[in-house]
C-alpha cells in the first residue's frame, strides 16, 4: 500500500514532517521498517479544515447514502481481511483467533450501526401532533429528531487495533451519526490503522462522498491530540484508554472556549462478588470461568476482572488452588507493546506492597503469565487503593468473613464499567443490586465481565472514573447518540419534516397520541 | 408560614447565619419585611449530608410511589394557589395573568413528568432476549434501563419564579428521575421559593418520603452555589440564566475531582428570518406576531426574540412603522428586579453604539417599554457582537438587500435556543434548514419563539453558548434523562429485572426482536 507511513488528509496523503516513528513487533521488540511521519501542525490544521468542509456536505446527504457507506465499509474490510489480520497480529502480538473475532466484530459494527440509522432508531424521531382546537392556545406540531454535531476526533486504543481504533465502534458510530471523523492513530499499531483508513477512504471515494469524511493522523507524542481537541472545529471526542490519559484530555478540553463532550472510557477493575452458597456449590465451575476471563489475551481488556470478593467457605482453599493451577499452567502471552508491559510490571510491583502475592506469574520480555494475589476485607477497607486497575492479567482475591464484610467492601468501590455477581438462583440476589447498580454500568449474573455483546440493550460505560459521561455507552446502538443532538421542528407539516431527513418506509417513529407514546 | 426566612435542611428549618437579606418589590424597590438567612457553610454541609442519605432511600422506592409523590405535589400546589400567586406577583412584578399561566404550567409539569415515569418512557427500558443456541457463543439476555444519578443541585431562575425555580422543570424532572434535590433559591423571589419548598416538603412528609428528598437553601451571593457544585456528593446541576453565570459554574465544576454534568441553559437572541415573499404578502400579520412576542412580560424570556433578519421590500417602511406603533403604544412593564433592569439599561447603552435606535422605549424605575433598533447586513457582518443577547424587550432589525446577504448573516450566528422562519408555503423553505438546524435546537415555521410547549417532542436547548450540553433538553419528557444513567442487567431473567424496578402493566418496553425494535 503506497500510502503506508503517510497521514491521510481526506483523500490526500501527506508526510511533511521530520518526526518519524516505527511500529514494533512486541514479540521481539524489533521495529518494522516503514517510517511513519508524525503529522505536523500544518497537516493537523489541513485535516481540521477538510473535516469541517466535509461535514457541511455529509450532514445533508440522505440516510440511505449514509447506510450504504457503512455497509460498503464492512464489505471492503471482508475483501481485505488477510492483509488486515496480518498486520493486526504482527503489531499487537495477539493471536490469530483473537484477530478473527475482533475482525468479525468490527465488520458487524459497521453493519449494525447502519441498521440503527436505517430503522430510524438512531434518529430518535418523536412527533407531537398539532391540536388547533386546544384552549386557551392551540397546540403546535412538534417533530424532534437527531442531527450530527460536527467533526469528531477519535483516539485509537492500543488494546483493540480493530474494534476500538480506525475500524472501531467510535468511528463507526460517528460516521453513522453523520459526522466526519479525524482519527489520531495509536502509535503502537500504525500499519493496521493506516491500512484501515485507506480502505475506508477507498469506499468513500467510490461512493463520491466528500473529501475529509475521514482523516487519519499519525503521532507518537501528545502534540497532535492536544491540537485536535482544542480546535474549535471539533465538536466531540471519543477516547478509550487510561484514567490518566482521559483526565489529561479533559483538562485540555476544559481550556476551550466552547465546551464539548469527551466520551472517555477509562479504567475499571470489574469486580466479581461470589456469595457463600455459590462458592460452596460451584467452586470449581466458578474458578474455571474466572480464570479463563482473567487469562484471556493477557487480560488486556477494559472489562478484564481484577478483583474477586468472596465469602470464605470450607472449600475456599480448594477454590484458590484451582485458580493457582490455571494461572501457573497457562502459556506465557505477549502483551501489546513494550510500554504496556513496562507499566504492567510497575503496577504489579506497586501492588505487591499492598497484598499477598500467592502466585507470581512468570514473564519474559513482553510475555506474561497472570498473577494471583489475596488480602482480607479489613485490609482492603483500610487500603482502598488496592482496587485501582492493573492493566493486564492480575487478580486480587479479597477474603470476607461474612456477607456484611463483603458489602462493606463493595460500598468502597469506585465507579466501574461492570460488576459481576455469582449467586445461587434460590437465594435473593436482588439484595446486592442497590450497591452494584450504584457502582457500575453493567451487572452480570453468574458470568464474567469479558465479552461485551454489541447489542441493542448494551451499556458500556459506568460511573466515574470508569467513564466520563455515564449517560452514554461506547458499545451498542446508543453509542451513536454521543455524536448527535436533537432539533425540534415546530409548525412544520409532517410531510415537510419527513422530506428533511429522507425517511423511508422502514423508519420507525415514536408518536405521542392520546396520552400514550407508540 | 412559620418557616419563612429559614433554610430547609430536609424537614428541618434552620437559620444559623448572620447574613440576612430581603425580598424586594420591584414596582417600588421597597424591601419586604421578613429577613432571609443566607445558609452557612455548616447548613450547606448538613443539606448535602441529608441529600446523600435521602438518595439511598429514594432511589430504591417503587416507581408507583415516585409517581404518587409527583402527582400529590401538583394537588398541593393547586390547594395553595392563592398564596403562591400572591408572592409570585409581589416579588416578580409580573402580572396576574402571567402568574396564572406559569402556575398552571408548573402543576402540569409535575403531572406530566409523573406520566413519563408511569408509562416507562423515562426508564428507557430496552431488552435483548437471550439466544442460547447462537454460534460460536450463546447470546446473553440484556435488560437496560435508567437509574437516578444522585443528589442534584438546581439554581432557581429569576424570570420564572414558579416554572424554573423551586416548582420548576429541573426540580420536577430530577425528582421524577429518582434524585433528591437541593435548590439554591434565587435571592430575588425568596418568599415564592420558600413557600414552594415548604409545600413540596409537606407532601414528602405526608407520604413518608426520606428526610432530605428536598433541601432549600437561601443565598444572595455566590458562596452557597460554589460550595454546592464543588461537593463530591452532588452528581448533576441544573441552571438557567446568563452565559456569564453558566460559564462561571462550569469553571467551578471543572475544578472537581469527579466531573459532573452541568445542564445550563444560557443566553439566546432567538433570531427570526423573514423571506421577501412573506414580508410582501403578510407584513402586517408578521409585525403583530413579532411585536407581541417581544413585548410579552417585558421580554424576560430565554426565548424572547432579539434579532430580526429581513429582506427589504417595498413595504418595509410600513412594516417598520407598525412595529414602532406597537412598541410605542405599549404600556410600561415592570422588570423582575433592580439588578435585571440595571443590566438591561447597560446593555441598551452598549448596543446603541452599534446600531441605529429607531424607537427608544420609555422607562421609569424598573419599568420599561421595548426598544427597536436597526442596522444593515454589512454592518452586522462586521460587528457580530450585535447578536449578543439583551435580556428584556429589545429588537434589532437587520436589513438584507437580498437572500444571499440574509444567509450570510445567519451563517454568522452563534448557537441559539431557537430560530424562526417566516416564509410562504409555496416557496421552498427547506433551503434555510441547513443553516437553521446548524444554529439552533428548535426551528419555528411561521411563528414566534416565545411559548415553549411542555411536550413529548420538545427540545429546549441548542448549540453553545445557548446551552452547555445540546444533547439534552430542559423542557419535555426528555428533561428527566439529564438526571439518570443507564444500567444493563446481563443474564438476569426478565422476571427478575422487572421486579427490580417494580414495573406495572402500563410500562412500555422497547424490545429488540428479529432484527427490529418494537
Oligomer category? homodimer
Measured between the Cα atoms of the first and last residue of chain A, the distance is: 51 Å
- Please count the helical segments of chain A: 15
Q: Radius of gyration of chain A from the CA trace? A: 24 Å
The tally of strands of chain A reads: 26
Percent helix among the residues of chain A? 25-40%
SSE topology sketch:
The structure is a homodimer of 518-residue chains.
Chain A: E1 7-9, E2 12-14, E3 20-21, E4 24-25, E5 30-31, E6 36-37, H1 41-58, H2 63-79, H3 81-92, H4 96-118, E7 126-128, E8 142-148, E9 152-155, H5 169-177, E10 181-184, H6 190-206, E11 214-217, H7 223-230, E12 236-240, H8 243-254, E13 261-265, E14 272-274, H9 276-295, E15 307-311, H10 316-329, E16 333-334, H11 338-352, E17 356-359, E18 363-364, E19 367-368, E20 371-376, H12 377-382, E21 394-400, H13 403-411, E22 416-422, H14 433-439, E23 440-445, E24 484-490, H15 494-500, E25 510-513, E26 516-517
Parallel strand pairs in A: 7-25, 9-10, 9-12, 10-11, 12-13, 14-15, 14-22, 15-21, 20-21, 22-23
Antiparallel strand pairs in A: 1-2, 3-6, 4-5, 7-8, 8-24, 16-19, 17-20, 18-19, 25-26
Give a brief outline of the structure:
Helices cover 37% and strands 20% of the residues of chain A. Chain A is of the alpha/beta class and 518 residues long.
Task: Describe the protein in words.
Two copies of one chain form a homodimer. Chain A is α/β, with parallel strands linked by helices and 518 residues long. In chain A, 37% of the residues lie in helices and 20% in strands. The first copy, chain A, is built from 15 helices and 26 strands. In chain A, the strands form seven sheets. In chain A, strands 17-20-21-15-14-22-23 form a seven-stranded mixed beta sheet. In chain A, helix 2 packs antiparallel against helix 4, helix 4 runs parallel beside helix 5 and helix 9 (276-295) packs parallel to helix 10 (316-329). Chain A is globular and about 70 Å long. Residues 498-518 of chain A have low confidence and may be disordered. Chains A and B meet through strand 7, strand 8, helix 14, strand 23 and strand 24 of A and strand 7, strand 8, helix 14, strand 23 and strand 24 of B.
Amino acid at each position: 500500500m503506497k500510502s503506508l507511513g503517510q497521514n491521510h488528509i481526506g483523500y490526500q496523503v501527506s508526510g511533511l514532517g521530520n518526526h518519524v516513528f516505527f511500529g514494533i513487533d512486541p514479540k521481539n521488540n524489533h521495529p518494522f521498517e516503514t517510517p511513519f511521519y508524525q503529522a505536523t501542525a500544518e497537516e493537523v490544521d489541513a485535516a481540521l479544515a477538510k473535516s469541517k468542509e466535509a461535514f457541511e456536505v455529509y450532514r445533508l446527504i440522505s440516510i440511505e447514502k449514509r447506510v450504504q457507506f457503512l455497509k460498503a465499509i464492512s464489505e471492503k474490510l471482508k475483501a481485505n481481511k488477510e492483509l488486515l489480520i496480518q498486520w493486526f497480529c504482527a503489531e499487537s502480538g495477539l493471536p490469530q483467533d483473537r484477530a478473527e473475532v475482533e475482525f468479525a466484530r468490527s465488520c458487524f459494527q459497521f453493519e449494525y450501526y447502519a441498521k440503527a440509522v436505517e430503522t430510524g432508531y438512531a434518529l430518535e424521531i418523536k412527533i407531537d401532533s398539532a391540536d388547533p382546537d386546544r384552549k386557551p392556545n392551540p397546540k403546535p406540531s412538534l417533530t424532534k429528531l437527531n442531527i450530527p454535531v460536527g467533526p469528531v476526533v477519535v483516539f485509537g486504543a492500543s488494546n483493540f487495533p480493530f474494534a476500538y481504533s480506525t475500524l472501531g465502534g467510535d468511528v463507526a458510530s460517528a460516521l453513522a451519526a453523520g459526522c466526519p471523523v479525524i482519527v489520531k492513530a495509536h502509535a503502537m499499531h500504525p500499519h493496521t490503522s493506516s491500512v484501515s483508513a485507506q480502505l475506508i477512504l477507498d469506499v468513500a471515494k467510490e461512493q463520491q462522498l466528500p473529501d475529509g469524511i475521514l482523516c487519519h493522523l499519525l503521532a507518537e507524542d501528545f502534540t497532535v491530540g492536544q491540537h485536535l481537541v482544542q480546535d474549535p472545529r471539533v465538536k466531540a471526542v471519543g477516547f478509550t484508554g487510561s484514567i490518566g490519559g482521559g483526565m489529561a484530555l479533559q483538562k485540555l478540553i476544559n481550556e476551550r472556549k466552547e465546551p464539548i463532550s469527551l466520551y472517555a472510557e477509562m479504567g475499571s477493575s470489574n469486580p466479581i462478588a461470589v456469595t457463600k452458597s455459590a462458592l460452596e456449590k460451584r467452586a470449581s465451575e466458578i474458578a474455571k470461568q474466572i480464570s479463563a476471563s482473567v487469562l484471556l489475551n493477557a487480560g488486556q481488556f477494559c472489562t478484564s476482572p481484577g478483583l474477586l470478593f468472596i465469602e470464605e467457605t470450607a472449600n475456599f482453599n480448594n477454590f484458590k488452588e484451582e485458580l493457582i493451577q490455571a494461572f501457573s499452567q497457562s502459556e506465557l502471552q505477549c502483551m501489546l507493546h513494550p510500554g504496556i508491559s513496562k507499566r504492567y510490571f510497575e503496577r504489579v510491583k506497586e501492588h505487591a506492597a499492598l497484598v499477598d502475592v500467592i502466585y507470581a506469574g512468570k514473564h519474559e520480555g513482553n510475555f506474561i503469565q497472570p498473577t494471583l494475589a489475596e488480602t482480607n476485607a479489613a485490609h482492603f477497607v483500610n487500603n482502598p487503593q488496592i482496587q485501582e486497575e492493573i492493566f493486564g492479567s492480575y487478580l486480587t482475591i479479597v477474603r470476607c468473613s461474612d456477607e456484611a464484610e463483603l458489602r462493606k467492601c463493595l460500598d468502597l468501590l469506585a465507579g466501574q464499567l461492570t460488576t459481576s455477581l455469582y449467586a445461587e438462583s434460590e437465594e435473593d440476589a436482588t439484595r446486592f443490586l442497590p450497591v452494584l447498580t450504584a457502582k457500575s454500568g453493567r451487572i452480570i449474573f453468574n458470568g464474567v465481565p469479558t465479552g461485551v455483546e454489541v447489542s441493542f440493550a448494551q451499556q458500556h460505560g459506568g460511573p466515574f472514573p470508569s467513564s466520563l459521561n455515564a449517560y452514554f455507552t461506547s458499545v451498542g446502538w446508543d453509542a451513536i447518540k454521543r455524536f448527535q443532538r436533537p432539533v425540534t421542528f415546530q409548525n412544520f407539516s409532517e410531510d415537510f419534516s419527513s422530506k428533511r431527513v429522507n425517511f423511508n418506509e422502514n423508519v420507525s417513529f415514536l408518536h405521542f397520541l392520546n396520552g400514550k407514546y407508540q
